[in-house]
């Protein structure tokens, strides 16, 4: 079975500052005897028809080139190449409107309101809606803190015109800023083929609210509380069926875990934080392949 290990054209924008996870995992899988080759999703010279399976490892610029990405997924499907994670799941997960589906299923999600492309609402009423003094606004199709703003009421006069201009290009989402992200950190739970592998707590650098490690955030491996893990498993069981990888990101607020994102496309896997993680990934991959 010939496997495409899908990455992106690295221009340094989303490069990890902790380890080259892509190359280490690729070498590990090759060392296990798998016929796996790195392929950049946007490279027109790749002969995708030569592959049986395409593993989405790090197409980290997909949200910057979403139209191209959707076209690439359609091509992969038309060629009969099996995509991991599944095509329908990836398409659903690419737009954060999926959070509404999860909330509708009764699972705790960070309160969210969507502003669609072309709309231009007043931002001030959202403070009362969420009963908060700080808000977060970001695109509905996004990653890496792209066009993400944290703001207070006092910031609205300056920010409103900028958001109005951005809304001409794409839709956005508004959420209350959860102080727990800054004070306690954001949890990440990693699952491979539905089985828990490892977890960690991501913390923003002093004065920031963004926890991404390439933006200065720090990473703290954790042994999760059993009840917290059971909650994380629910999101994967309900919405990550058939997935090779899933990362559940969330924060505990008011004693309840609230989902921030269910990462089913291209999450960094923080494999360096657990000695068994590479083997867990391999077993997850072979397990998924056996279900074909």
What does this molecule look like?
The protein has nine helices and 13 strands. It is α+β, with helices and mostly antiparallel strands and 292 residues long. Strands 11-10-9-12-13 form a five-stranded antiparallel β-sheet. The protein has a four-stranded parallel β-sheet with strand order 2-1-3-4, sandwiched between helices. β12 and β13 form a beta hairpin. The longest helix has 14 residues. The mean pLDDT is 92.
Keywords:
alpha+beta; 13 strands; 292 residues; 4-stranded parallel beta sheet
Terminus-to-terminus distance: 11 Å
Overall pLDDT confidence: 92
Shape: globular
Percent of residues in helices comes to 25-40%
SSE class: alpha+beta
Topology order in helix (H) and strand (E) letters:
EHEEHEHHEHEEHEHEEEHEEH
- Strand percentage lies at 25-35%
Cα-based radius of gyration, to the nearest Å: 19 Å
User: Biggest sheet: strands side by side, in what order?
Assistant: 11-10-9-12-13
Q: Can you tell me the residue ranges where pLDDT is under 50 for at least 5 consecutive residues?
A: none
Largest sheet: 5 strands, antiparallel
Count up the helices.
9
Based on DSSP secondary structure assignment, what is the total number of beta strands?
13
